[in-house]
Design a protein that fits this description.
Blueprint: H1 16-24, E1 30-31, H2 32-42, H3 51-63, E2 67-73, E3 79-85, H4 87-111
């Protein structure tokens, strides 16, 4: 893992990207670049998702039925695939959010041990 003093970017634990994508899509449909930009912005530049990770995750979420994609025109007047959360994706987001909160609380307890 990179030294936080020299590289403020964080590495995502396995499976976390799916959770973050689902959460990002709760507000509005976005294309891949928009998802990446939103995550970077909301994380105050700490998270930078590379295309090599983002697009396989989007395809995986689409295969699972948690998001759906439609082609539309982007703000740059280019054809882009927009992703949106499905009802099944909303349920999955709620379940994964709860699991994440339980996990981070448990890890926090261990790290705070005397």
């Amino acid at each position: 893992m990179a030294d936080s003093k020299t590289d403020p970017k964080l590495e995502l634990p396995q499976g976390t990207l799916d959770l973050l994508i689902l959460k990002t899509l709760t507000l509005e449909p976005l294309h891949g670049w928009g998802i990446s930009e939103r995550l970077q912005q909301i994380s105050r530049e700490a998270l930078q998702v590379q295309q090599g990770s983002l697009y396989p995750a989007l395809h995986r979420l689409e295969r699972r039925g948690w998001i759906k994609a439609t082609w539309s025109t982007s703000e740059n007047n280019r054809r882009a695939k927009y992703y949106e959360l499905t009802k099944q994706g909303q349920k999955q987001l709620a379940a994964e959010t709860e699991a994440w909160r339980r996990l981070t609380a448990a890890v926090g307890h261990v790290l705070d041990m005397a």
